[in-house]
Amino acid sequence: MHRRNRWFDGIVMLVLIAAGCLMLLPYLWMVLSSLKSNIEIVSGSHALLPQHPSLEGYRTVLEDAPFGRWFLNSAMTSVVITAATLFTSALAGYIFAKHQFKGQKLLFILILATMMIPFQVVMIPTYLITAKLGLVNHLLAIILPNLVSSYGVFLAKQFIEDIPQDLLDAARIDGAGELRLMVRIIAPLILPMLSALGIFTFMNAWNNYLWPLIILNDESKMTVPLALVYFNGTHMVNYNVVMSAAVLITLPVIAVFLIFQKQFIKGLTMTGMK
What we know:
Elements: H1 2-34, H2 38-42, H3 56-63, H4 67-98, H5 104-113, H6 119-132, H7 140-143, H8 150-161, H9 165-173, H10 178-189, H11 191-207, H12 210-215, H13 227-230, H14 239-259, H15 261-269
Helix pairs in contact: 1-14, 3-14, 4-8, 4-11, 11-14, 11-15
């Protein structure tokens, strides 16, 4: 029986390794393609490694376009959206989990219902509202529709419901107000959830392509995902430049994950679901 379990564990490990390699293959191909010349890529060569490695694609991205400005635009909008989402999710989750008020269940159901609506359905109304507010070609147009996440509210509520009510009551007896309660007790207890939600939110905000493409046409206000369109020529695509831009766009997401990976994994395992 012990030998059979070892064989089974070995097979599972091999399958997981193979799956991991398949998942990493597109990223490896992207990085290696960024080191090739455009002629080598369009020639139809199936060689994975570049024949004559070159950083020309990266030079074009960093010198021939305002990539630094786009990077700052994406960084600012992503950080603001992430911070606002964590704040509103934790606050609303606490209210729904630990307070009772009239119409609470109906309001929470309506919030959950918005999770079922694709963005494409509300894209035109959102654009019209943004245009009425005079925010077309403004970075606020990227930030404002993403200040609140229904999924974040739902996740925070599930986590906060598991916090013992006696703990909160004891803090109130000691004189803690609602703000101190949130900062000193609830926030540390739901930190793994906030870390996981923060990474997901940052990744979605950083990689957001469709809405910025619609609402932004000023080159100075572009975000980094739009750079992939910028480097596409009218009659020919500079694939090595596009791949170089894609590598640079991916690096911040990888860095954020590596920094917060422990909290991210802990947040995924501590679902708080009942």
